[in-house]
Amino acid sequence: MATQSSGVRKIVSAAKGTLAAVSGSLSTRNTRHRRRAVLAQQHRLHFDLICKAMDDPALAAVLDTYETDVPLEKQRQFLFANALYINALYFHRIGAMNRAELYGHLRVMCQNEVFREYWEATRHHRMSLPEASEEYVLGLMMDDLIQELLDADTDEWWVVGEPPEQSA
User: Which pairs with CB-CB distance under 8 Å and at least 24 residues apart come from 60-69?
Assistant: First the structure.
């Protein structure tokens, strides 16, 4: 009888372990799903707010935190540049593109002079980011990329710079 109880306890214990592992796996999957849903909602809200500011000069004035006087039309362009940049970051954050793919996407965006002006005009915004944050690291990556593109001796911009490791 004692042997049977010991065997039953082992089976119950193994079943509990398996159930806990499955439950943990489902919990991790649900957490990732919730995180992606929150990011999607945040992205939609950001885009809606940027669109409203592009359409309404009174709202665009709220986002005018540049260190120099930026004409309204240029502000609207900067807001659009910000929307493009944030869209690329969003796709990276949800896992739709890895860091090397993001780098390639940003390299294309950096070909545009207005985007580069936006990036320079918002440099002081990025100075407040914690150095350990992903956005800070990606900002440095952009700074380096823009500098490499400006320093390049080639018209073949698509080969300028060294994309980060695929696993990043």
Answer: 65/125, 66/121, 66/122, 67/121, 67/124, 68/121
Q: pTM to 2 decimals?
A: 0.72
Helix (H) or strand (E) holding 114: helix 113-121
The per-residue pLDDT for range 17-63, each reduced to its tens digit, is 676 666 666 667 788 888 888 888 888 888 888 888 889 989 888 88
Question: In whole angstroms, what is the distance from residue 36 CA to residue 13 CA?
Answer: 35
C-alpha atoms less than 13 angstroms from C-alpha of 4 in its C-beta half-sphere: 1
Distance of CA 73 to the CA centre of its chain: 26
Q: What DSSP string describes 3-55? A: HHHHHHHHHHHHHHHHHHHHHHHHHHHHHHHHHHHHHHHHHHHHHHHHHHHHH
